[in-house]
Amino acid sequence: MADEDEAASVRQVWSALDLPGVIDVHTHFMPKSVMDKVWNYFDSAGPLVGRHWPITYRADESRRVAMLRQFGVRGFTALVYPHKPQMAAWLNQWAAQFARSTPDCLATATFYPEPDAADYVETAIRDGTRVFKAHIQVGRYEPNDPLLDRVWGLIEDAGVPVVIHCGSGPVPGEYTGPEPIRRLLRRYPRLRLIVAHMGMPEYAEFLNICESAAEVRLDTTMAFTPFTDDVMPFPPAQLPRLRDFADRILFGSDFPNIPHRYADAMRWLTELPGIDDTWLRAVFYENAATLFFPSTESSRQ
């Protein structure tokens, strides 16, 4: 369980905004064998991480779920992602079972460019997947790979959001950056992409994409934190644009793989220049509620 003082600090942030809790669109739950490997990779400061990255919430699965509930997180994700073929379908099976046993978790799935990708994506959608995860950096694949053509078409038609790590942070990849996403959206303009990490470090470019694509959103994961600002700070000149996209920015934490406290991730957002309570209410809860729970958002369930 979380420290009582920390849980109280998290709850104080959202309760001061008269919210019923928070919705976190960027949390990770994975099979234990996979999560252990992810943590080992972070511990070793592997090349896709680039530097020492302590894991604040290294605990067993049930304890991590209990922590989020103590914080008042009303909805969260189990963002799984493959780094090689013949992995995604197995991760999807695990994530579906996790969602069935964890009702406050949005049923999550993923995919990889491989011949059967469209088949298992179609199955995931039919079985109730609420959000997909695509990790262009770790997966090292071109989002416009022909093997994904039918995948994107199915997801676009179903209107299922995709949390997509496509910015070039923390370390650039061969296919990261805004241009592959621009090409993707020209082909599938109705895709509901949630660009992870505000698109860091190409913040301005991904805000530009939001201007031209009505269904593209951004999540705040790891942005605006001292850990990130040391190497990839959000440009001060772009801060006024955060208000322009108040309805397209969603809170994400990267829990449990964060080098700071959950309460701090929320508090740093409240301290952004020019941000008011209306913006914070939208980002911490209302935007995600509208996207994922449209029938209950008005009653703020």
From TrEMBL:
Q: Among its keywords, does the record have NAD?
A: no
Residue span, Amidohydrolase-related domain: 23-292
CDD domains from the entry? metallo-dependent_hydrolases (cd01292)
The UniProt entry, under Gene3D superfamilies, shows:
Metal-dependent hydrolases
InterPro entries (alphabetical)? ACMSD, Amidohydro-rel, Metal_Hydrolase
Q: What GO CC terms are in its UniProt record? A: cytoplasm
Q: Name one GO biological process term.
A: secondary metabolic process
Which residues are the signal sequence here?
Answer: none
| UniProt entry keywords in alphabetical sequence | Lyase
Supply the SUPFAM superfamilies for this chain: Metallo-dependent hydrolases
- What would be an example GO MF term here? hydrolase activity
Pfam families given in the database record: Amidohydro_2
- Tell me what this protein is called: Amidohydrolase
